[in-house]
Structures are given as structure tokens and as C-alpha cells.
Amino acid sequence: xxxxxxxxxIVSSVRLPLAHLSFDLTVSVCGNRMWALRxxxxxxxxxxxxxxxxxxxxxxxxxxxxxxxxxEIADYLELQV
Length: 81
Hints:
This protein is α+β, with helices and mostly antiparallel strands. 26% of the residues lie in helices and 38% in strands.
């Protein structure tokens, strides 16, 4: 095994924007499912994008847990408005 990073081929990707945050869901050619929560500042904010959290959701249980977390966030936001 070499010290070089292996190439990753993306077969699908979805970005869900929410104000200055975005939630990315990505699937690679080998079937891995990755998620990332990022801070995406406006150009006038004089700030750089930052990855806040990320992980994998390869099993059905992990995907179900991620979906439940996203629904909980949506429910919370709906109550705030």
C-alpha cells in the first residue's frame, strides 16, 4: 500500500443548502455513502468555507439514523418559524 491517496469516483451527489450551511450527500462508484455538513459563507462575509462534520452511512441502520436526524432538524426549524 502506497502513501498516495486513492482516486475517488463520485457517481451521485446532492447538496441541500440552508442559509450559510449546506448538507452534502455523496455516493462513490464503490457504493460508499458519505455526508458532510459545511459552513458556506457569502462572499461579503470575508470567511472561508469550513467542514463542520462528516461521516459515512453505508449500512441501512446508518442511513435510517441519518434520515431521522435530518427529520428532527426539519421539525425543529419548522417550529421556530
